[in-house]
Amino acid sequence: MLHRLPSISLISRSSASSASTSSPTHSAKVSDRIVKLFAIDVDGRKREVVGLSGHTLLKALAQRGLIDPASHRLEDIDACSAECEVNIAQEWFDKLPPRSYDEEYVLKRNSRARVLNKHSRLGCQVVLTPELQGMVVAVPEAKPWDIP
Asked: For the ranges 1-5, 38-42, 68-72, 117-121, which has the lowest average pLDDT?
């Protein structure tokens, strides 16, 4: 004689339907998360860069080949030596959250003059959002101590 065990559902129907609905920052479609921006490379050429909302500017620049990913510990401010420093155009700079104390410290520490450039940000600390669509950043030439 076979005994049937009651079926147990680990996820209720209401949980399953709410799990499939994602938050606005983590849309199910990648195309909804695309953020296109522009980077001025060290030769002065304007290059289109495509990133995803929620990812860092550093990740987008590294994927485009504008910053060497091997020289970075991506997104780790404690290990940052400012190789991912970029300059952000003023009209976009005001749309970013303010720098953290740690970001300011790293930027000042790695500046030759120990002075903070008002347009400088660390690419590892700038998180892309849809509001940054079209942003323009300049990727400075590598500092002599950053070149292998």
From this structure: 1-5
> Among all chains, which residue has been given the structure tokens 């990740």?
59
- For residues 99 and 121, the answer to whether their CB atoms sit within 8 Å is yes
The Cα 37–Cα 48 span in angstroms is 6
47: β partners: 39
CB 127 within 8 A of CB 37: no
Phi-psi domain of 28 (left: phi exceeds 0; alpha: psi -120 through 50; beta: other): alpha
Cβ–Cβ < 8 Å for 72, 131: no
Measuring CA to CA, which residue among 121, 78, 75, 76 is closest to residue 97?
Answer: 121
What confidence tens digit (pLDDT) does each residue in 47-106 have? 999 999 999 999 999 999 998 776 666 556 666 767 788 999 889 988 999 999 988 988
User: Strand 136-138 relative to strand 34-40: parallel, antiparallel, unpaired?
Assistant: parallel
By C-alpha distance, which of 52, 56, 72, 35 is closest to 125? 56
